[in-house]
Amino acid sequence: MKIGILGTRGVPNHYGGFEQFAEFFSVFLVEKGHDVYVYNSHNHPYQEKEFKGVKLIHCQDPENKIGTAGQFIYDLNCILDARKRNFDIILQLGYTSSSIWFKLHPKNTVVITNMDGLEWKRTKYSKSVQQVLKRAEKLAVINSDFLIADSIGIQNYLNQKYKVSSEYIAYGANNFLAEDSKILSDFNVIEYQYNMIMARLEPENNFEMVLNGYLQSNTKLPILVIGNHQNKYGEYLKAKFSSDSRIRFLGAIYNLNALNHLRFYSNLYFHGHTVGGTNPSLLEAMSSGALIAAHNNEFNRGVLQENAFYFANDLEVKNILNTIKKSDNLHLVNKNYLAIESTFNWKKINEQYLQFFEACLARTNKGR
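Structure (tokenized):
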């Protein structure tokens, strides 16, 4: 099959979850003998034309100059290029802006869309952009040939909202066992004597709730706040919480080995996400041996089941901090390890995607 992957800033991953998936899946497809193309932003740090056999197409991306509107232009540029490639399948990762250009999709190509989370709920977007994203979601549902939901919650939402079926395929991770605690010295922490929270610094990820709980707690352990804080919300959080010496803003960290060790040796890992399906950083926390305290919502519970502690307000965060230790709850850590091995491992996820692609193409060819 000749496959094009759109909707990310590109590979190798220098940004987030979809980019990580695109990297793993595209390389897997090439190893299976398929002809694979991934669209990259023109200013992606990796400027080669291939990555591990995956062909890279760099398209003009003005988001860094004009903000959110640049996503629409970047996706348009990618789709215009895709019209010339004669792909068997286009995989759209997310619908944020590409669905606006649905009339430009190649006519003889199967379009499969991973619907991501409820993007229009993200508070980083203005009210007008949220309305555009709601419309884009509907267009993606109507105009995609097939849909993928990466959580049961999203699958249920699509069925209830639009009366459409979708294929449930989760996100993936690989289990990790730490090898060298010396890496902790780079961050001035000691094994199991710190907590952490990691995400994009946006309101829906509940940094403020967790850190408010921290202020109220009597824990003496520091908390590492990992994420790019060079934005309005990040500056607000730093101004509010930096005076407490327990709260350390480290900025963004993209070194996966360092992150895995930090999660493995943490006491508690707070996961505050409320928007989205199967969140990549949650699976990575599970696979890294973290003891997880997660915001209480259907997306997080759908993944963690009973193998985590849950909070819905700062008082519950405070109580978790005052009463929970990792050493007393290693059975929860082990159950999450097993969940990665049985359900959320990359090999299984990649194979599910490939099998779905083959089925979609067969169904489409049969109908022609």
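The domain at 2-172+345-367 is CATH 3.40.50.2000 (Rossmann fold). The chain has a mean pLDDT of 92.
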